[in-house]
Amino acid sequence: MRNNRSLAELCAAATRRLIGVSTTPRLDAEILLATALNRPRSHLYTWPESIPEPELADRFAAWLERRQQGEPVAYLLGWREFWSLKLEVTPDTLIPRPETELLVELALEPLPMNQAVAVADLGTGSGAIALALAAERPQARIVATDQSPAALAVARRNAVRLGIAHVEFRQGDWCAPLAGEFFDLIVANPPYVAATDPHWRQGELRFEPPAALISGPDGLDALRIIIAQAREVLKSGGWLLLEHGYDQGVAVPALLRERGFSEVTDFQDTAGLSRVSRGRYFHF
């Protein structure tokens, strides 16, 4: 059936359908509709009375149906912006979150602008953190690890498309692919959701890879492993920065101190929630 509804009508109807599904129903509707039209969102406001071609309206309708079932917009479109970088994302990778930009900001602080420092990003997923750091520190040597070959394939494609050549991607668990090398800084956004937390089976999280979300009964398994392993591959005085759950702002700094890290600090995100812990390790 040919669509006879204008862009304004389509967007309004879609917004109503997404209320209760999304926290940003109007924004989601506009992004999906504009992308289906291969136009910027401003087009919807400039030409609100125009009627899209049937095949474009059908594409939008199909995406809207999937979004109504809870599928994230990033997976529908196949990309997400992070640190002003347009990144490919797939169900093999975690969707980069705005709050993770705090991890990038803090990681950049101790890294000189024009110096050949060595940095590792553990569990890189789509490559978001590694590529953001690489974009800001062109002299750095960056190694990004992930246990998932599928995720690494996405990260490599992102690096190629963005023209970033000084990131090396290696397969393996956490610090294992770094054995025999030493780094000035290690950064990680590991899984930190407790297996007993019911939220990872609900809403949009249902569509993301469980291995990138779940980490043991208390959510700290991966963080414990990384903190223990990082000491073996950090240069003396090197930094470890870890994203963690909002309720782990006491536990993670405690784990860092137990493993001999000093200058331990926990940081809050823009919502005032505990988000990143940082520590420094010295070899004696």
Which SSEs are present, and which pair or pack?
Elements: H1 7-18, H2 25-37, H3 42-46, H4 54-68, H5 73-77, E1 79-82, E2 85-88, H6 101-108, E3 118-122, H7 128-136, E4 141-146, H8 149-162, E5 167-171, E6 183-188, H9 221-230, E7 234-243, H10 251-258, E8 262-268, E9 274-281
Parallel strand pairs: 3-4, 3-6, 4-5, 6-7
Antiparallel strand pairs: 1-2, 7-9, 8-9
Helix pairs in contact: 1-2, 2-4, 6-7
Poorly predicted regions are: none
Roughly how many Å is the radius of gyration?
21 Å
Average pLDDT value?
A: 92
What's the level 1 CATH class of the largest domain? Alpha Beta
List the main descriptive attributes of the protein structure presented here.
Rossmann fold, seven-stranded mixed β-sheet, alpha/beta, 2 domains, 284 residues, 10 helices
Descriptive report:
With 284 residues, this protein is α/β, with parallel strands linked by helices. It has 10 helices and 9 strands. The strands form 2 sheets. A 7-stranded mixed beta sheet has the order 5-4-3-6-7-9-8, sandwiched between helices. It has a two-stranded antiparallel ribbon with strand order 1-2. The chain is elongated, with a radius of gyration of 21 Å. It starts with 6 loop residues before the first helix and ends with a strand.
Characterize this entry briefly.
With 284 residues, the chain is α/β, with parallel strands linked by helices. It has 2 domains: 64 residues; 189 residues, Rossmann fold (3-Layer(aba) Sandwich), CATH 3.40.50.150.
